[in-house]
Design goal:
single chain, alpha+beta, YaeB-like fold, 5 strands, about 20% strand
């Protein structure tokens, strides 16, 4: 009876480990084209930029040079993928910008200061 329970526990553990490995191995990063030629800023992004003293140049700087944080991104998102791109600006602000590449252009959804909690009254 005991060896039967042990066998069941081992089987369940192997199944869970197998599912985790399969789930993580199927995450093939989709190519993120960093095209800053036509930037579209949401109302929310503009408000957050204002609160955090971030300008369009810094947003483009992060887009072009930042690192994609796939843990915070949704490359398979619908209707458009979303990418969390992180980096440090010329003014040493560590930022995470959420971008959504669309047919109309690169949409800036929001921007987050990773080191300072700014007061914002954005909706």
């Amino acid at each position: 009876m005991r060896s039967r329970n042990l066998g069941l526990i081992v089987f369940i553990l192997l199944l869970v480990v197998g599912l985790l490995v399969y789930r993580n191995s199927n995450r093939h990063p989709v190519e993120f084209v960093r095209d800053a030629s036509h930037m579209i800023y949401t109302k929310h992004a503009r408000c957050r930029m204002d609160c955090r003293h971030i300008d369009e140049t810094e947003i483009k700087e992060i887009l072009e040079n930042g690192t994609i944080n796939y843990e915070k991104s949704e490359p398979d998102g619908k209707p458009d993928p979303k990418y969390a791109v992180e980096g440090t600006t010329r003014e040493n602000q560590r930022l995470r910008i959420i971008f959504a590449p669309t047919n109309r252009g690169m949409v800036v959804i929001t921007c987050i200061d990773l080191e300072k909690d700014w007061y914002c009254n954005c909706q």
